[in-house]
Amino acid sequence: MIYPVLVCVAIGYLCGALPWGLWLGRWFRGVDVRTLGSGNLGATNVYRSLGPLLGIATLLLDMLKGALPVWIVPALPVADHYPGGAEMCAISVGLAAITGHVWTIFAGFKGGKGVATTAGVLFALAPPAFAAFALVFVVTVALTRYVSLGSVLGAATFAAALAFVEPRGVRSPTFLFGVAAAAVVVLRHRENLRRLVRGEERRFSFKRGATP
Fold first, then answer.
1. Most distant CA pair in the chain: distance in Å?
2. Residue 204 domain-assigned (yes or no)
3. Is the pLDDT of residue 210 over 50?
4. In the 8-state DSSP scheme, what is residue 139?
5. Is the dihedral of CA 193, 115, 59, 130 positive or negative?
6. Mean pLDDT across the stretch 47-74?
7. How many domains are contained in the chain?
8. Collapsing DSSP states into helix, strand and coil, what is residue 84?
9. Do 121 and 66 form a contact (C-beta atoms < 8 A)?
10. 85 is in which domain, residue-wise?
11. Does the residue 211 lie in any domain?
12. Is residue 37 within 8 Å of 49, Cβ to Cβ?
């Protein structure tokens, strides 16, 4: 029983650990994005430091590396005997992908904050709840231009929405995962939230390198 767990979780972790922000910066600009801006590997810092094309590419690839393993791994033969069935397999793989992004083996175990990869996992697990996440994120960022605030509120909204869209409500393993994922997003943004309280958080700008 341990073999399917190890294989599926390993695939999820390695997929999530692919540091696209770091690689795209090196391949197309010859720079290490960790030395620029906030030093983060996520799409926001790539956008601010290297421009919209690489920023959007990083966002999409980071989302994809969360969604793909959740879709694909539970359908592999090795997952046939996964404890708890396909749902638990998908949740475990999704959590592993997020962990891989945040603590990537390919960049000294220092990755991004996990929002885009978490969004990809959430989209694959529960599209209706993800729609609520996306709506709150977009509206919050549009009104405040704080990506961190949009990420935190969006993650909390996703967890709350799962209570209504999941057939078993709060008893669903997917709901419990949504709560855990939201908690991880909040914890990864705790410094941003402190800066928000102090009025020091940077607002997002569509202009590269701008700090309104």
1. 54
2. no
3. no
4. H
5. negative
6. 95
7. 1
8. coil
9. yes
10. 2-198
11. no
12. yes
